[in-house]
Amino acid sequence: MDADQETKTTANLDVSTETSGSLSPLSADDSTSIDVNEIGKQLRDFVDTFPKQVGETYSIYKKPLNLFLVISAAAVAAAVANGVLDVLNSIPFVAPLLELIGLGYSAWFAWNYLTYAEKRQQLVEDYRQLKAKVTGQS
């Protein structure tokens, strides 16, 4: 490039040093500017109404949500119990000891409740009472 072309190029640029400006192409009073107060108001409204909406949703779907929570808790409890039993089974002599305890309790239960007719009737009655308490039937 020679000197004449350079001066022509710089002569066509409109550089104003009188006013300082922003590097952003949007001005502060542009319609696309963000209104922080409006966002804050929307956030406050959301925080105010969110607990009410959750409560209303829970009251509508109470039974399915409770069922889901109970099933989830049972699954977690089964996983924890499985882990505990794995740890106990890895300890020597604990697994056979637990088997002996289980066999002893089963033998005691059979002798205590299943050998005589009046004890069997008492067991059936106790079972019915427990079932009525659990199901809510009085």
TrEMBL record:
GO cellular component, one term: thylakoid
Cell compartments where the protein resides: Membrane
Main location: membrane
The keyword Transmembrane belongs to this UniProt entry's keyword annotation: yes
Residue ranges annotated for the Cyanobacterial aminoacyl-tRNA synthetase CAAD domain, each copy included: 52-136
Annotated transmembrane regions: 65-85, 91-111
Highest rank taxon of the organism: Bacteria
Stored InterPro entries: CAAD_dom (IPR025564), CURT1 (IPR033344)
Pfam family, one: CAAD
Alphabetic keyword roster: Membrane, Transmembrane, Transmembrane helix
PANTHER family: PROTEIN CURVATURE THYLAKOID 1A, CHLOROPLASTIC (PTHR33222:SF4), PTHR33222
Protein name: Cyanobacterial aminoacyl-tRNA synthetase CAAD domain-containing protein
